[in-house]
Specification:
The structure is a single chain. With 180 residues, this protein is an alpha+beta fold. The chain has a domain of 100 residues: Zincin-like (2-Layer Sandwich), CATH 3.30.2010. It has six helices and five strands, in the order E-E-H-H-H-E-E-E-H-H-H. The longest helix has 16 residues. It holds the Pfam family YgjP-like. This is Metal dependent hydrolase.
Length: 180
């Protein structure tokens, strides 16, 4: 199981906690240098130019369905996919998966929902894909265990790199530096 303990650094009096302390000191030093020199945004923009075209809930639903149909045909259906501006990226999660249970005619019926933080409306497509893949993997594996991360890597071979780069991007946004 992959454990994340958070590397904390202070910029302008605010605690930032997107980066894992499991990273090498050399890598953390490189990131801190990019932050101090205000070049983190430039590095990310060069690697991930532009944003995606999935800005509406309908487009996000179709994008998610396409990924689900490609990799998880036998998984339970997804009833709702949407951007959610109530997900607080700084304090909570980047995406949520929920199973809403309702009673219908004396039977209990579960409906799966995926919600993605609104900040990803204007993100590079690979970052959105990483979040959607993560939430789709929860349809099969509820816990963040080895099987969960293997499934994420099956759906997106660059999953771990994209997760790290997404953390860098969120760090850049939290510092008030220009978006990609």
């Amino acid at each position: 199981m992959r454990e994340y303990t958070l590397f904390l650094f202070f910029v302008g009096g605010y605690e930032q906690s997107y980066l894992s302390s499991g990273l090498s000191e050399q890598l953390l030093s490189q990131v801190q240098t990019l932050i101090n020199e205000q070049r983190l945004g430039d590095v990310l923009a060069k690697r991930y130019p532009g944003t995606h075209d999935y800005a509406t809930d309908k487009a996000l639903w179709q994008y998610t369905q396409d990924l689900k149909n490609q990799f998880l045909r036998n998984a339970p259906p997804i009833n709702k996919v949407m951007y959610d501006n109530k997900i607080h990226v700084l304090k909570n999660a980047l995406g949520l998966h929920t199973a809403v249970s309702r009673v219908q005619g004396g039977k209990l019926k579960a409906k799966a929902e995926i919600r993605v933080a609104t900040v990803f409306r204007n993100a590079p497509e690979p970052f959105l894909r990483m979040i959607v893949v993560h939430e789709l993997a929860h349809l099969k594996e509820k816990e963040h265990n080895k099987a969960f991360y293997q499934l994420c890597c099956h759906m997106e071979p660059q999953y771990h790199q994209l997760e790290f780069d997404t953390r860098l991007w969120l760090t850049q946004l939290s510092l008030g530096q220009d978006k990609i």
